Amino acid sequence: MTNMATILNSMRDPMGVPFYPWMFQALMVLTFALHIIFVNLVIGGASLAMYGHIKGKEEPKWKRLSATLARASTVNLSLAIVLGVAPLLFVQVIYDPFWYFSNVLSGWWAMGFLLFICIAFLALYVFYLKRGENIEGYGFFGAIALVMLALTAITISALSVQSLHPEKWDSWYLIGKHMNTAGTALHDLNIARLLHFIVPSFAITGIFLMLYSWYFEPRKDFDHEYLTWVGKTGAKLALYFTLLQIVVGVWWLLTIPKNLDFLTNPALLGGAAVGVVTLVILVGAQKNPQKQAIPVAFVAFLAVLAMSITREVLRMEYLGKFNYSIYTYKLNLDWGSTFLFFATFVMGLIVISYPIIIAFKLGRGTDVTGGE
Ligand code: HEM
Known about the structure:
This protein has 13 helices and two strands; from the N terminus they run H-H-H-H-H-H-H-E-E-H-H-H-H-H-H. By secondary structure, it is mostly helical.
């Protein structure tokens, strides 16, 4: 173990980090939460769009919802990709020895990941644009998009898991006494962990449908019976898949090594508590999903954030066994780049908030001209 600690610490960037590691860690957890929410919206939205595509041949409501979700999924995929870059940068800064080694072990997959996303993106666009009024055909492209998204998720999850097991790296990197530099294999995948990030797709998409129903409610030109149906369908989906998520969560916990003593970890207990609150509030929201959409979305966001924190605490437990701590990373304070980072970040938020507010009001049918 001591040997491994020396190896890991010597693989760090000798330049050190330009600001306190806790800041990178906090931003990594926050941006991962945002990333996984949009990943969930894409996987859940595209799956439901496909379901609606098939069911829509007999039921016009599903046909309409399928078209909406296909369109939304293209936007959500862009956001999932953009929001994936942020945790990628942070993980490379504070966990560089792990992330790079894992990527080297499976180089072809790390590169393939980019190809999978490109194909998923193109296929999703064809599915959305080409179906038109006649929804016969083109379902094939929706299916391709889903398969590619699944491959993307499998790849990134395997890379994450491989990075947590430095004790296995030599057995993966060596065949007998020879180095295996092919990078063609994925060496470790925890299905329970992967499902823990994918099953919520349907709960999160259900909440998205509740928000959709709430958002368009003031619009007189909308069919309100349809909106009520969308809200109720979303609330049911969110409830059933939150229940399933709890089962998957327990399964994942059972796969975590006993010597980490994770079952009694306060982060895990706190995360589980927020999960239960989400379930309770979802039960209450079944009667009037439209009215409860905002509180449900808020609590669900807290649950995803708590899950991201727990995921990070688990990583610290795994790597702590090798005496690795990000808090001992060499510090090379650079106020200039830190200031520039935050200044552009705040500026970006201000600039983007204006079009978002206008788009929000316009979509809801609010007069944005000030009555002129
Ligand atoms: C759109 C398709 C994508 C899907 C379905 C997806 C799915 C996932 C999943 C399931 C995880 C959790 C893995 C785990 O901890 O076991 C994850 C983590 C992550 N994803 Fe994505 N992702 C996608 C796109 C991206 C993109 C385009 C990037 C980067 C540009 C990215 C960067 C990351 C990072 C950095 C992590 C965390 C790695 C870590 O902390 O160890 N993802 N993603």
